[in-house]
Amino acid sequence: MEIALATSFPDDADTIVVAVGEGRQLFPSAEPVDSQAGGAISRAVKTGKFKGNKGQMMDILPPESMGLERIVAVGTGDYSVYQPVDRQYLGGMASAHLDKIGARHVAIPTSDVLNVCDFAHGASLRSYRFDNYRTKIKDEDRHTLTKITLVADDLTGAEEKLARLGHLADGVTLTRDLVSEPANTLFPTEFARRASELSAVGVDVDVLGEAKMAELGMGALLGVGQGSERESQLVTMRWQGGAEGDPWLAIVGKGVCFDTGGISLKPGAGMEEMKFDMAGAGCVTGLMHALAARGAKANVVGVIGCVENMPSHNAQRPGDVVTTMSGQTIEVINTDAEGRLVLADALYYTVKTFKPKQVIDLATLTGAVMVALGTYKAGIFSNDDALAADLIAAGDAVKEELWRLPLGDRYDKDINSDIADMKNVGKGREAGSTAGAILLQRFVEGTPWAHLDIAGTAWTKGDEAITPKGATGYGVRLLDRFVADNWEA
Ligand code: BES
Ligand code: MN
Ligand code: ZN
């Protein structure tokens, strides 16, 4: 979506959006439009159920003289309590409505252009679609809204703000594209190729194939990919926006391009959803794009472990013991608990190579986190209270919320194995998400670390304010905010 700035109404706009607050109160910026329309707006909002409540929309037919198709009144509710993210959400809701009525170029008058930038950003995020494989789209399903022009006398700072939000939206879009892509077209080497395209925004990308990983001793990651025809890949994306010698922030992602469960095969029903099992890696890639494109003043390295978990005559078996890069051994009780095996090597490689000040991993690691938290919040596990608090605060600010779940010695003992250093499952159904997290903790060498289990939040089955149904891009906005507040401030 194009977002433009102007000091007067563009001739080719077909729709004007105006804001109406609690108690049917027109925003001051709506007054001149209302008078041009001969009071049509103020008359319309006095009737019916439209009260200016948050998210209410009303389509008004303007007089012919205005050369417009519609004026859309958008209710804000109590505007005095709005945070930037609330404007984004309202923009998202408006965007869905505007597409429904066929609006194409929308002009929005405002006396506070910076605030309305957030509204437009939300509209743009909501208008995302993954249409690559749809050869027939019905007219009424088609998105029409392609341009929003913000109209204000004072445009100070708006261009800068829109550019920054645009890079963030591009990052979210990249993540959603990667996560939406089916596994026959997005497999590990293709993922690595897509990640390599980040060199265009100044990211240094390195790809390790299976031979190199074998040399490094990454037996856990390689064991997961062993049953697949597709070669596993470890991709490193470096953005050095800070000073040389400044510490690194490392972000690590689970990139299981498809998770069949392996020999511990998953049931058939719903298995198609497991193309999303690379959402952690998808988030890391989108985040690196956003940070580099906006020139974030921080040294951030993203590392993703990309594999395909398949059953085959070559696949690893339940009971196999693998040796990780760290030298620790893992008994593979269940080949479907593969994410922690991939991350064990990816995390260890990352902390050894970059000695980061903090390391954060994202993974669609456990079904159990959905049992605990549903789809509204992701689980966070951390060995560092300050890091956990900073991530939770960033999540709250952008409404990508986190809820902290426990680690601890007693859980740690639960993954001890009789024949190896550890096993890849805990006590059956008990504390399943912690069992995954606690294994990861054994591979971070005491680095301040947080694990985000995004199995419930990476995908949505229904439309949400700034997220159409499908891949959400969860984590990109959260971590962009975390970097801005804690690494650039
Ligand atoms: N990718 C899955 C986790 C998952 C399951 C995400 C369902 C979203 C929906 C992960 O690899 C997995 O299979 N985890 C197992 C672990 C178990 C075997 C210990 C799980 O959660 O059942
Ligand atoms: Mn699995
Ligand atoms: Zn998985």
Walk me through this protein's architecture:
By secondary structure, this protein is α/β, with parallel strands linked by helices. It has two domains: 2-152, Leucine Aminopeptidase, subunit E, domain 1; 167-486, 3-Layer(aba) Sandwich (Aminopeptidase). The protein is 34% helix and 21% strand. It contains 15 helices and 20 strands. An eight-stranded mixed β-sheet has the order 8-9-11-10-14-18-15-16, with helices on both faces. The radius of gyration is 24 Å and the shape is elongated. The model has no long low-confidence stretch (mean pLDDT 98). Bound molecules: ligand BES, manganese (II) ion and zinc ion. Residues 256, 259, 277, 338-339 line the site of zinc ion.
User: What compounds sit in this structure?
Assistant: ligand BES, manganese (II) ion, zinc ion
> How many helical elements?
15
* CATH H-tier superfamily of the largest domain: Zn peptidases
Question: What do we call the CATH topology of the largest domain?
Answer: Aminopeptidase
Explain briefly what this protein structure is.
It contains 15 helices and 20 strands. The protein is α/β, with parallel strands linked by helices.
Task: Map the helices and strands.
Elements: E1 2-6, E2 15-21, E3 25-26, H1 31-36, H2 40-44, E4 57-60, E5 70-77, H3 84-101, E6 105-109, H4 113-126, E7 147-151, H5 158-180, H6 188-196, E8 204-208, H7 210-216, H8 219-225, E9 233-240, E10 249-259, H9 279-293, E11 299-309, E12 321-323, E13 329-331, H10 339-354, E14 358-363, H11 368-373, E15 378-382, H12 385-398, E16 402-404, H13 409-413, E17 422-423, H14 432-441, E18 449-453, E19 459-460, E20 470-471, H15 476-486
Helix pairs in contact: 3-4, 4-5, 5-9, 8-10, 9-15, 10-14, 12-15
The protein binds ligand BES, manganese (II) ion (MN) and zinc ion (ZN).
